[in-house]
Each structure stands twice: as C-alpha cells, then as structure tokens.
Amino acid sequence: MVSLGDQVVEKRPLLAGSVFVALADIELKKGSEEEFAVWFSQSNRILAKQDGFIARKLLRAPNGSYLIMVIMTSKEAFAKMHTTSEHSKLHSEAREYMSRPPKISAYNSVP
Length: 111
What we know:
This protein is α+β, with helices and mostly antiparallel strands. It is built from 3 helices and 6 strands. Helices cover 30% and strands 32% of the residues.
C-alpha cells in the first residue's frame, strides 16, 4: 500500500487487471471545504480496509466543484462496501458537509 500522510493513494497498481470506478459529484456547504477535506482524509483509513478497495481521492476542479473518485476491484465490491456499518456511518457524516446528495456515475475499465 502506498500512502502520503493520511491519504491512501492505492492498495495495488491501478493498471493491474480490471477496475470499477465511481465518481460522486458533490456540492459542499459554503465554508465547510477545509473541514471536509480533513474528514475525508481520515475516512480513507477506514474505507481502505474494505474488501476490493483500491483507492479513493477527493478532486477539485478549477471552477471549485468537487468529485470523489473511488476505485474498487469490481462493481460487486463497491456495492458490498455500501452495505457495511462503517460506510453507513461515514456516509451520514459526509452528508453533514454537503448541500445536496451526491450524484454518482459509475464506470468499468476497458480491457
């Protein structure tokens, strides 16, 4: 596992085999951006323990919009992670920082 400070970068090489990628378009409440970034970094340590987890990263566009990128070994692993008590707790905490529910787009890598 490669890490930079509190952020998990990846648990395995990203190009090894097929992967499932979920992008969550999020809108943060004004003034919560820095606190959310700290929370996000801490939450990575919990989610990194999930089966099939490869990486998770908070992205910010030049226009100030945010995406959460989650990379898993499969769609099934992603779905299973969403049934855990850890994810439920973290999702509830994350929603406190957001002004609307996340909009999810999902992708499978092309062989």
